[in-house]
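no rush on this but wanted to send it before i forget. theres a chain ive been looking at and ive put its sequence and its fold in token form underneath. please have a look and point out which stretches look like helix strand or loop to you. thanks a lot i owe you, the record is right below:
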Amino acid sequence: MTPTAGPAQGDHRTTYREVLAEPRFRLLFSTRTVAITADALRITTFSVLVFSSTGSALLSAVAFGIGFIPQLFGSLLLGSLADRLPPRALITGGHALTCATALLLALVRMPITASLGVVALVSLATPVFHGASSRLVAQSLEGDAYVLGRSLSNVASAGAQVFGLALGGAAVAALGPRRALAVSAVLYFGCALVVRVRLPRLPRLEAGKFDGTPGGDSGAVRASLWGAGLLLRDRTVRRLMLAQWLPVAFVAGAEGIIVAYAGERHFAPGRYAVLMGCLPVGMLVGDLLVGRFLRPRTRERLVVPLVALAGLPLLGFVAEPGVGVSSCLLLISGLGYAYGLGLQRPFLDALPQDGQGQAFGLLGSGSMTLQGVGPVCLGAAASAGTGTGGAIALAGGAVALTAGWIFTWHLPTIGGPDANSAT
């Protein structure tokens, strides 16, 4: 699978200021940040609404995660639309659809199962909107500017999620869950309006091999399955996707049982929040340091060490350390998340021009799905006898093994042992 176009190569280090000077990226970056804030507000508020209606912790947890797992199916069945339809209409429609969903949940008193079904159904389309947005970013920023754009997005995403969670708590306390959902709808509506007014009308891509046949124009489902098959059959694309999925999924699994770990160790009330805050703080610092101060080739050579850094500190949980040591281990693990910046340019280079939107949608939806599955698997491991500390250490070992697997690729840009034997 040879890309028809790719970002500029070289080792030029771009600055954040240069990235933000690009008008199209600046628009997409700002509206996406607001939308992530609205997502965090909507997800947590919906979970509170379900718990207040049913008193069921299980249904509340299902409400929290119901929008994640269906995304992979949506990407497989509808992902080609990210390349087949005009991007302004798709992105505007995505914000408008989530706005309508939040309003529906706020204004209509539906049975819980119906509410969960609505959220799950809408999440099927999420990879299409995100894929179209990511494709536009890739077309707007070249070379290291694209990697720095992803770094900025990661930092803003972490901040927006934290702010959205805090805003959700304040809004529920002041307004109640239904009115808090209406607040998220207002934020979504603002994003839709700004994109519709400020983003130029851009044409869709011409039909190509990602339209379902090697040159034809077929239905969305057939084209999506065809395109996903082409992407996943390509060895380089498949490996680069797995490299971006697996470490994050394992660490997210460890993060998902931190509350249980704090309970097992009888930490003081509220200490679990300190532990859970260490990973995102480490992620934010790591992205800023690696994105701002390292050259492109250096980032790509450091992928394996950074993946190992994300996993090895978690092995220390086998000793069941106290709050202070646990916080340090999680903070260091979060720094390793910056490994993803070194994979951005090789991944973009591996994609065909007419399949970028679907590839980005598949990348994001696969990551979200595995992050939902990871805590379930590690929770089962903890219940089976490893204990929560042992389960977190198990996740760290899996991340370290993933680092070793990446090292065996021999990709020159990833810093494998043989730079001349690219796979």
Q: What stands out?
A: Residues 186 and 345 are 35 Å apart (CA to CA). Residues 15-200 form a domain with the Growth Hormone; Chain: A; fold (CATH 1.20.1250.20). The chain has two domains: 15-200, 234-414. The longest helix spans residues 356-407.
